[in-house]
Amino acid sequence: MSIFRKAKRIVVKIGSSTITSESGNLDLKKLESLIEDISKLKNKGFDIILVSSGAIAAGVERLALLKRPTLIPELQAAASVGQGLLIEQYSNLFKKYGLNVGQVLLTQSDTTHRQQYLNARNTIDKLIEFGVIPIINENDTTAIDEIRFGDNDTLAALVASLTSADLLIILTDIEGLFTDDPRINKEAKLISRVDEITEEIETLACGICSNLAVGWMVTKIEAAKVATFSGIGMVI
Ligand code: GLU
Fold first, then answer.
1. 138 CB under 6 A from ligand 1?
2. Rounded to whole angstroms, how far apart are CA atoms 228 and 223?
3. Which of 118, 135, 146, 182 has the fewest beta carbons closer than 10 A?
4. Does residue 53 line the site of ligand 1, with CB under 6 A?
5. N- to C-terminal Cα distance for the chain?
6. 213 lines ligand 1 (CB under 6 A)
7. pLDDT at res. 145
8. Considering the chain, what is the average pLDDT of its residues?
9. pLDDT at 201
10. Is 16 close to ligand 1, i.e. is its CB under 6 Å away?
C-alpha cells in the first residue's frame, strides 16, 4: 500500500484489548510480540510514536478489583495505579532491543492551547531526536474523554496531527471496518479501503464495540476524520 511506503513518522495506537487477555489483565506475551515488531520498525529508521491505553487494565489487576469499575473516579484511580506499571513493562521490554521510552501524558486540551501544544510537540520531537520512543496516554487524572468513550482513538489522531505524522495505525481486536459487526453478523464483509468518510460509512461504524476497551468503531471513524483532515492516512 503506497501510504506505507511513503511513511517515515508513524503513530501506532495500541488499544487495551490488544495488550490484555480475556480476563482483562495485561498480557505480557501479546505485549512482547508487539514490541518486537515495533522495535524492528524503529530500528529500520521509522520514527515511531506509541499511543497506548492499558493503564486502567493494569491498575484493576494490581488493585485486585473483581472487574473494571464503572464510576469515573474509580477508573481514574485505577489508571493512576496502572500507568506506572504499564510504562515499566514497556520500558523493560523495549530495553531488550536497545530502545528507551519516554512517558507523555496528554489531554485533548493540550492540543487546543497554543503554548501547551508547542510544549508537547517540542518534547516529542526531542524524544524522537534522542532515538527514544514516546509512549503517550491520556492524563486520566485531569481528563476523562478517553475513559468515557474513546480508548484513546481521538487522542491518537490528535497526536498524529500534533507530531505531523505520515500515518496513523490503530491496532485493535477487530480486523478493520466491516459492513456490519462481524462478531454478530457472520456475513459481514471487510471494507478494505475507504477513500471518503461518507454518511454511509459513519452509519456502518455505529454499534460495533469491543467488550473490554471503550473503543467503539465509531470513535475510530471520528479519529479517521481528524487524521485525514490533516492529510494523514489511517489504517485500522
Ligand atoms: N487512558 C485509559 C487507559 O489507559 C483509556 C482506556 C480505557 O478507558 O480503557 O486505560
1. yes
2. 8
3. 118
4. yes
5. 13
6. yes
7. 86
8. 91
9. 87
10. yes
DSSP state of 229: H
Phi, psi of 63 (to 5 degrees): -80, 0
Neighbouring-strand partners of residue 167:
10, 233
Which is the closest atom of ligand 1 to the Cα of 53? Answer: 4
Residue 209 pLDDT class (50, 70, 90 cuts): very low
Q: What is the pLDDT of residues 64-101, one digit of tens each?
A: 999 999 999 999 999 999 999 999 999 999 999 999 99
Query: Is the distance from CB of 172 to CB of 14 less than 8 angstroms?
Result: no
By most ligand atoms within 8 Å of CB, the mutation choice from 18, 72, 147, 211 for ligand 1 is 147
- Specify the ligand 1 atom closest to the Cα of 15: 6
Which whole number is the average pLDDT over 137-142? Answer: 95
For the Cβ of 134 lying below 6 angstroms from any atom of ligand 1, the answer is no
The pick from 151, 158, 170, 211 for probing ligand 1's pocket by mutation, whose C-beta has the most ligand atoms within 8 angstroms, reads: 151
Give the residue with greater pLDDT, 132 vs 199. 132
Contact indicator for 168, 233 with CB cutoff of 8 Å: yes
The three cell numbers of residue 111 are 492540543
57 or 147, which is more confident: 57
Could you tell me the CA-to-CA distances from 112 to 32, 47, 119, 148 in Å, in that order? Answer: 34, 24, 12, 20
Q: Decide: 27 in ligand 1 pocket, CB within 6 A.
A: no
Considering only CA atoms, which residue is closest to atom 8 of ligand 1?
Answer: 147
Atom of ligand 1 nearest to the CA of 52: 4
